Amino acid sequence: MARRQKSPVTAAQRNAALDGVPFRLPAVRQEEKNGKMYVTILYERPRWQRVLGADRECQRTFGLDAYGRRVYESCDGRRPVRQIIRQFAEQTGVSLPESELAVTKFMRTLLAKGLVAMKMEKPAA
Amino acid sequence: MSMDNQGQAVADRAIPRSAFRTPHSLLAWAGWLLEMPREWQPLKLSGTPAKGRMMVGDATCALFSIQWERLKRGLGRDGRDWVAERIKQHGVLPEGTPPAAGHFSACGWAHGVQTEEDKQTTYWYGYSAPAELLVGVTVNGVLPAAVRARVTGEVLPSLRTTPANAESIWAMYDLSFTAPAGFQLMRRHLYSGDVALEFARDRRETLVLRQVYPGDLALERRPFERWLDAVPFPEHRRLRRADTTTEPWQHVTRSELAGVRRRGRKRLPWPLGWIAPRWTCALAAHDRRLNRLLIAEHRSAAEPDEAVAVAAVEKMNRSPREGC
Predict the structure, then answer these.
(1) Which residues of A touch B (CB under 8 A)?
(2) A98, B174: Cβ pair inside 8 Å?
(3) How does pLDDT run across B116-131, given as a tens digit for each residue?
(4) A96:B6 CB<8 A
């Protein structure tokens, strides 16, 4: 059976993603321990877990190191991803392509874990 | 030459004034080097230092590729025949005044060449006798005219080579290494945030150069000694702890470079330990100015001179002013 190929990311999609404005979702609590920041959020369990009798919601805590915290705190609902990438490159002294790689990958993790959400404009057809 | 805030290495003193108006970075590999905008990066690297190819692009597409081939014996003549033949293979005649002509023994170029894919491909070929290196550059013909002009007007004129019998420069991702004369690249470890190169001379002497960044994050995860233990390339010999001395190290003139120095011997596992042990002198230093962890390890059959490792560390990310 032929494997389904992943569609390539077009320049328009990339630009739309970089122009997106991330913002932090409300956290249950934030605390600092040993130089790390711990963010606790409410997490809605998947349906199959609920069918098996689990509660609808539970709390999950994520630890962020100094660099992760810097990106997380940059998600203030005003700065687009493009600006966060540039700031991260300036602050850490890494090149722009490397900064883009690191920030977008981390941003994807934050989105997947439910720590941030992104405001995006629908790309023009 | 104006440079950005990241210390960039530059090959020699005879560098023409850069045509760049935006921040740029150095790209150097296998005897050639050029300058390009900071937002461009190598996308693909294949082959060996003797013969290979590198594709360079930005976040959206490939912009140009560089092919190189090092000759064991020179072309015999000045290389003009080779350049003319290469251009003839594309079915066109060479055009006048190729960029970077002053840095090569022979070079030629043709632009606006029609290929199967597009109509505006640019081919540039050069031969450098001191470097014993053939270099070819192909500029992607599907790019917008402004980008093509940027490659041919800014990047190509900065192309030059380093002599074959001199120290070699290796640079990408805003960082650079300098290997002493005679050392050949054997292995590479190119990851974002952790770049390492292993060089060898006469099979019995090796030099491993490594940069890990951001340095404070690297040192938060493990101390200097453990970074020296965590070698990026697998090796058969293990450090013999009984003979090892580790002590703090500080660069004599550059106060921002401080770390540890380790001297000792590496041996094959028992019972082969008596076979060809190697002396090792390793330095790991935190460059607080660039916030990078710089590591150099020199291994040889005889007790190595510490100066090799020290010179390797101090020549990492050398700025043009310091190099002159």
Answers:
(1) 11, 14, 35, 65-67, 92-98, 100-102
(2) yes
(3) 766 788 999 999 988 8
(4) no
